UniProtKB/TrEMBL annotation:
<dbReference type="InterPro" id="IPR001752">
    <property type="entry name" value="Kinesin_motor_dom"/>
</dbReference>
<feature type="binding site">
    <location>
        <begin position="103"/>
        <end position="110"/>
    </location>
    <ligand>
        <name>ATP</name>
    </ligand>
</feature>
<protein>
    <recommendedName>
        <fullName>Kinesin-like protein</fullName>
    </recommendedName>
</protein>
<dbReference type="Pfam" id="PF00225">
    <property type="entry name" value="Kinesin"/>
</dbReference>
<keyword id="KW-0175">Coiled coil</keyword>
<dbReference type="InterPro" id="IPR036961">
    <property type="entry name" value="Kinesin_motor_dom_sf"/>
</dbReference>
<keyword id="KW-0067">ATP-binding</keyword>
<feature type="domain" description="Kinesin motor">
    <location>
        <begin position="20"/>
        <end position="350"/>
    </location>
</feature>
<keyword id="KW-0493">Microtubule</keyword>
<dbReference type="InterPro" id="IPR019821">
    <property type="entry name" value="Kinesin_motor_CS"/>
</dbReference>
<keyword id="KW-0547">Nucleotide-binding</keyword>
<keyword id="KW-0505">Motor protein</keyword>
<dbReference type="InterPro" id="IPR027417">
    <property type="entry name" value="P-loop_NTPase"/>
</dbReference>
<feature type="coiled-coil region">
    <location>
        <begin position="427"/>
        <end position="461"/>
    </location>
</feature>
<dbReference type="InterPro" id="IPR027640">
    <property type="entry name" value="Kinesin-like_fam"/>
</dbReference>
<comment type="similarity">
    <text>Belongs to the TRAFAC class myosin-kinesin ATPase superfamily. Kinesin family.</text>
</comment>
Length: 497
């Protein structure tokens, strides 16, 4: 295979020791409906800024502690400063970061993430998203002159288990890929370069306008999809031309919902089922990460949903991650609040050790290059490096890979991953076939027992049971078993071809 002379090499530096992800709880003020139902009653009692007591009619008092608890009077700025600001600062130093809002429908996830509106709202009510935008651009201004930053924005939603590009609705089934160097990637997702906060906010508001939102009995503007805002922050050193990139993901999850409470029907019901399924896949991943053996032996079911696959880096360690568990304080929703708190308490055990990925332009010697070609190549490279900036070089590299001129460093990984996929699909299919086989055997056993009982009964009571009908029954069962084996055989043949 032709190996190209120009490519980026990545190497990683661990940032810090393993640390647990940051988990905070936030209780919104009681809604007017909750006040109607239960007056001012609440199911939590504040102890301090990290601890509170949960109590409702059904359970005994439970004490919960998180990195920080934001009560109903907390300000949006408190949440930003504690939860997001350190992650923003790290992302500017090429450490990937993820901030997730989680919780029951109507609990305040989107309010915490966006605020009442992304473009115009009371300054105090601005959510994490506009504050992150401001924070990023402020940090780039403060950086020393040798660092040049470029910021790109992407927005996708996972709607009915499909990843949709919110900046280009024609891309409604984006594929998720994994590269050993760059982690989880969304293939072909739009990346919008933004140069200042107003441009970034305008771009984000267009994406938000495309997001799936619906009305339920629990929330007039309920998010019907999981939404992911992705900031790609590239820092290039003008001194040595080294570049490094930090990715910051803000994830506004759709809320878990009890269908009888939300009054979901038709499309809203289908959406609710898909949302609940992917949230339980998220719960399974958190369980697998926090219990059982660590290391290669422990299978983490990231591939069970698009959500967990996209969050693989955030949960699997290579990201600074913060989780905001949004809750209602009302006794009406105490069960859902308890389940959100349990989720948060478990997630707190996840450990992370994010790394910085450096990219170095380097020249690879090529076996097939003759000295003349090599000389020409070096000349061309030198000229390119002088006249092009890093972004143009990247575009060229991508083009060369597409044309087959350059070797794609991800292709081997992709084929390895594809093989892994086929292997895991085959294992699941065989497991399914085995389960079917076992249930058929169980059925046949039962039939056999019935027949045996009939024979015994006939013998005991000297009943004349027709031998022929017994034989017909046995041969019928055997026929069923034979057909089933045949179909299993055809399934295997087709599957392996
Ligand atoms: N901290 C808060 N202060 C004031 N109002 C809030 C707060 N949190 C939430 N709300 C209000 O509660 C309502 C529901 O909030 P929001 O839409 O953020 O819920 P959600 O968790 O995103 O629900 P879903 O999962 O259905 O999308 C909104 O009207 C919002 O303005
Ligand atoms: Mg929402």
């Amino acid at each position: 295979m032709l190996r190209g002379p120009l490519r980026f090499d990545y190497y990683f530096c661990p940032v810090r020791e393993m640390s647990n992800i940051t988990v905070c709880a936030r209780f919104r003020p009681l809604s007017s409906k909750e006040r109607q139902d239960h007056g001012d009653a609440v199911c939590i009692q504040c102890v301090d800024s990290e601890t509170f007591i949960f109590k409702d009619e059904k359970t005994e008092e439970l004490t919960y502690s998180f990195d920080r608890v934001f009560y109903d009077k907390s300000e949006q700025t408190d949440v930003y400063r504690f939860l997001a600001q350190p992650i923003v600062q790290d992302a500017l130093n090429a450490v990937n970061g993820t901030i997730i809002t989680f919780g029951q429908t109507g609990a305040g996830k989107t309010y915490s993430m966006e605020g009442p509106g992304i473009l115009e709202c009371d300054a105090a009510e601005k959510g994490l998203l506009p504050r992150v935008v401001e924070g990023i651009f402020e940090c780039t201004k403060l950086a020393d002159e040798t660092s040049k930053y470029s910021i790109k924005l992407s927005m996708v939603e996972i709607y009915m288990e499909k990843v949709r590009d919110l900046f280009d609705l024609s891309r409604d089934n984006i594929q998720i890929k994994e590269s050993k160097t760059q982690g989880i990637m969304l293939n072909g997702m739009t990346e919008m370069p933004v140069k200042d906060p107003p441009e970034a906010l305008l771009t984000l508001s267009k994406g938000i306008g495309n997001r799936a939102v619906g009305e339920t009995q629990m929330n007039v503007a309920s998010s019907r999809s999981h939404c992911i805002y992705i900031f790609t922050i590239q820092q290039e050193s003008t001194k040595d031309k080294r570049a490094r990139t930090g990715k910051l993901n803000l994830v506004d999850l759709a809320g878990s919902e009890k269908v009888e409470k939300t009054g979901a029907e038709g499309r809203i019901l289908e959406e609710a089922k898909t949302i609940n399924k992917s949230l339980s896949a998220l719960g399974n991943v958190i369980n697998a990460l926090t219990c059982g053996p660590t290391g290669r032996g422990n299978h983490i079911p990231y591939r069970d949903s698009k959500l967990t696959r996209i969050l693989q880096d955030a949960l699997g360690g290579n990201s600074r991650t913060a989780l905001l568990c949004c809750c209602s304080p009302s006794p009406t929703n105490s069960l859902e609040t308890l389940s959100t708190l349990r989720f948060g308490a478990r997630a707190k055990h996840i450990k992370a050790s994010p790394r910085v990925a450096y990219e170095d332009k380097c020249i690879r010697e090529l076996e097939v290059f003759t000295p003349v070609k090599r000389e020409l190549r070096d000349k061309l490279l030198n000229e390119l490096q002088v006249s092009l900036d890093i972004e143009q070089v990247q575009i060229l590299e991508e083009l060369f890979i597409q044309e087959g001129i350059l070797f794609d460093p991800c292709s081997i990984e992709e084929s390895e991953l594809a093989n892994e996929d086929v292997a895991s699909q085959t294992i699941s299919s065989l497991q399914l076939a085995l389960e079917e086989l076992l249930s058929t055997i169980a059925e046949l056993k039962k039939e056999n027992e019935v027949l045996m009982a009939r024979v015994t009964a006939a013998e005991l009571h000297h009943e004349s049971i027709s031998n022929s009908s017994l034989l017909v029954s046995i041969s019928c069962n055997l026929g069923l078993f034979r057909d089933w084996l045949k179909s299993l055989f055809h399934f295997s043949i087709n599957h392996y071809n």
